[in-house]
Amino acid sequence: MAHHTPTQRVQIDVDAVTHDLAKIVGADRVLSDDTSMMVYETDGATLYKSKPHVVVFPDTTAHVSQIVKYANAKKIPFLARGAGTGLSGGALAGFGGIIIAMNRMNRILKLDIENRRAVVEPGVVNLWITNAATQHGYHYAPDPSSQKACTIGGNIAENSGGPHTLKYGVTVNHIAEMEVVLPNGEITTVGSGGDDPIGYDVMAMLIGSEGTLGIATTITVKLTRNPQGYKTLLAVFHDIDDATNSVSEIIASGMIPAALEMMDRLIIKAVEEAFGFGFPSDAEAVLIVELDGLTVGMEEQAEQIVRICKERNAANIQVANSAAERDLLWKSRKQAFGALGRIAKSYLTQDGVVPRTKLPEVLRTVYEISKKYDMRIANVFHAGDGNIHPILLFDEDDPAQEKAVLDASGEILKKCVDVGGTITGEHGVGVEKMAFMTLLFTPEDLDLMLTVRSLFNPDNLLNPGKIFPSDDMGMGIQLDG
Amino acid sequence: MADLKARFAAIVGTEQVERLDEGVAELGVDEPMTRVSPKTTDDLIEAVKFANTESIPLIPTGNGSAFHLGNLPVEGRVLLSTRNLHATVDYEPRDLTGIFQAGKRLADIQGELGKHDQFLALDPPNRASATIGGIVSTNVSGPLRAAYGTPRDLCLGLKAVMIDGTFVKGGGRVVKNVAGYDMTRMFLGSLGTLGVIVEAAFRLHPIPTDRRCVIASMKSWEAAQSLAAQVVHSELQPLFVELVGETEPTVLVGFGGIAEQVAYQVERVESLAKDAARVEIASGDDFDARHAALLDALDAAHRDDTRLVLRIGTAMTQVLPAREILMRLVDERHFGVQSTIHYPSGAQYAIVKMDEGASGESTVELVERLRKEVHALNGRVVVESAPVEAKRRMDVWGEPTGPLAVMEQLKRRLDPNALLNRGRYLRGIP
Q1: ∠B172-B173-B177 over CA atoms, to 5°?
Q2: Is the ipTM here above 0.90?
Q3: Interchain CB contact of B406 with A (< 8 Å)
């Protein structure tokens, strides 16, 4: 599909670059054959494709710095990549060039439980930190759905969230310090181990910059105490407004659950067909509420949630009383994406955020859009944050459907902005939503960001073709459909 | 000067421009200053444009409750205040978010939110008079940061006026937002040196219905630290864990939430504090008074021009070693010191009472020695307030937490003629 691949590619003498990079990292750490490049042409947003010319695997910060300096000297675009699980096309080489694959820098360097910190390399998988810390009663709080695969470096680039961010916050709230290779190859440190920044908050500017302002090479993360207990509830609703209104009421009652997740009819049907959880066939919404923290008083809070849901006509309220039952209740949510794979050839996951009280209105619009395009849209989302993930089902081999998916996505995102929300809560803008930045931001707002980019990344060699409408290669969603 | 007053008055209205004959002592200015307090954002934009065209340095301010912060300004004689921009732009209790104009006082915000049993979970020492714009600009926080974080964690978005009058925004009003760069946090804590913040959006919280605080008088700082560490590493969820005192420390652990949980947690701390000399429990109004007392001591010290207030930031485990360094250096000089430590964040505030007639030089020397030794613990020392005489000879900020060259370039790009709070931020930032 020409529509979803870039129109421009840089010209590179691949053999020479491969040879030069091999001198830095060793010949076995550089790939440039066509088959290998196919592996790196896309990330979790499989609709968007662009191959790099070369992929290089550094082992050390010094390697990264040397590679970056080399790319600068040769004016070759480059970007860092972790597991490639991103959902906005942020980790593909928009114009070709060099991908710096951080996967070999994957050591947990230090667990400092006394100070609630861990020092890790960027290629460390998110869940590994929790696995290492759990014996001490700690975990790393941001838990994107891809946490078994995604890396901390990628989480930093995207400022990743997850189901538990309602209570615990996103990546930027959990990073204490980073060693960073700046786009010119210089190595620097940002942050202070956790106390307040002194001077401008350069660390926060780097986090969520989608890999365009620097490459984190060593990261000190904050660890969070494991809660004493959990209480997980699952409620089935026959009306989706009842479910979303329950969410608002639970929050308004003063509780801050660790997670408030919702699934709608289509996704319930898919998981039901795939795994047979026993959801009623006329279920319009499933709400999963998880409380965590002290076990004292948790029972009463759970009862209050049950009351709120019942007042909103919930049926089949299940409460988990053991770890096994908790896992079972979460299973439907965690396997939602897998289940969709069985009923559609391809799907695109969107990522809008709206004020919680606007959820009923926005979901109605999503259903209207689904009808208008005659396209199945499943919704599984972080209701507590107002972070919706409409999943648009289509057939990748049908060009008409591909275009419709992007157009329908555009209409959904427009609605999110109209009600005071945003176009991405955790997936990033990437190559997908560049055109939509103008809906959220004025030319002045964008100029300010571009000024920041030009300061760090003056030649726009580090991950070009991302975020900004001025960089748009026309791969993603277009404003006018 | 008179001419300047008239020219600003022509833009923002006569009533909105005042002459401060005595200047502002905390800023080290004893000659007349002009305070411009526009009533609308548009007027503020015009005032900034005028200052830019005429190259008039501006000192952005809210209600003036944080003039003690920062180095002394260079050449600034005009205060640009947001105090007349104090509307609630939007507050939806069911969303637990609120948007306020920069000049709105935190105290007034709490009053409004309190009607819905909600609050903005920030408790800076200057909470009675501080405006929300000032709080965002200084990223100031208090003990509650242990449970809720700092402005950096609670601010969802903001709007600002750049020196050329350009109006920009960062973030938004929803709790999750990764569209574009994080301009919100760029402005947070920038002390008005990049732009004038005119509006900010926040995540809000329900007011904990039941509030109780365990106050344990400990026999030694080691015992105090040990108790605090046990609390931090336990299942407990304190609102704050504070270590305060001079020679004999007190540990204050605050809890809030539903009664049953609070009661359980209070009991747990009591059992952990077995070797305390004395344990008291404060609840309800008594809790609020104890909490307020923690803040008032610092607030008073910030306003006292004979005191030196230091913020020493280290890892939790280095809190006591850092305090020991401080005590030794202070003792050598026969000064007195009172400490307030937000234990979970490792932020340690020291109120140093200097000898009468102690020279500015001896204060500067103390700070330099302290910085050097605390740096060896991987910590940092910021001077939050100091006698003006001492300020004239020192850099209050010390080493930044990021590359100074990048920060300097950022400032030069966004405020090329260094008109915003010139000289008040880091050394090396014009």
Answers
A1: 55
A2: yes
A3: yes
What is the DSSP secondary-structure string of A329-388? HHHHHHTHHHHHHHH-SEEEE--EE--GGGHHHHHHHHHHHHHHTT--EEEEEEGGGTEE
Q: Which of residues 43-62 of B touch A (CB under 8 A)?
A: none
Residue A318 lies in a domain: yes
Report residue A328's pLDDT band, with 50, 70 and 90 as the boundaries: confident
Q: What interhelical angle do A61-74 and A14-25 show, nearest 10?
A: 150
Which chain A residues are Cβ-neighbours of B402 within 8 angstroms?
188-191, 197, 199-203
Q: CB-based contacts of B184: which residues, under 8 Å, 6+ apart?
A: B155, B156, B157, B158, B170, B171
Using CA atoms, how far apart are residues B35 and B31, in angstroms rounded to an integer? 13
- pLDDT, tens only, A437-454: 999 999 999 999 999 999
Q: Which candidate from A169, A195, A227 shows the least CB-CB separation from B153?
A: A169
B177 neighbourhood in chain A, CB within 8 Å:
353, 422, 424-425
Instruction: Name the domain boundary from A164, A195, A225.
Output: A225
| A204 to B152: CB separation less than 8 angstroms, yes or no | yes
- Nearest CB neighbour to B182, from listed A116, A204, A425: A204
* In the predicted structure, residue B138 carries a pLDDT above the cut 60: yes
Q: Among B35, B185, B158, B180, which residue's Cα sits nearest to residue B101?
A: B158
pLDDT at A1 over 60: no
Last residue of a domain, one of A418, A448, A474: A418
pLDDT band at A7; cut points 50, 70, 90: low
Please say whether the beta carbons of A283 and A238 come within 8 A. Answer: yes
Q: What is the CA radius of gyration of chain A?
A: 22
What pTM, to 2 d.p., does this model score?
A: 0.96
The enclosing H or E element of B113 equals: helix B106-114
Are A280 and A373 members of one domain? no
CA distance B168 to A276: 51
Query: CB–CB of A256 and B205 under 8 A?
Result: yes
Alpha helices in A110-228 (DSSP H): 126-133, 152-158, 165-168, 202-206
Q: Which three-class secondary structure string do you get for B334-354?
A: CCEEEEEEEHHHCEEEEEEEC
Which residue on chain B is closest to A167 by alpha carbon? B148
Instruction: Indicate whether A157 and A220 sit together in one domain.
Output: yes
Q: CA-CA distance, B238 to B223, in Å (whole number)?
A: 19
* Claim to verify: residue A115 and residue A220 sit in the same structural domain: yes
Residue A477 lies in a domain: no
Number of domains within chain A: 3
First-last CA distance in chain A: 17
The answer to whether B337 contacts chain A (CB < 8 Å) is no
β-strands A229-237, B58-61: how paired?
Answer: unpaired
For residue B372, how many other CB atoms are within 10 A of its CB?
Answer: 11
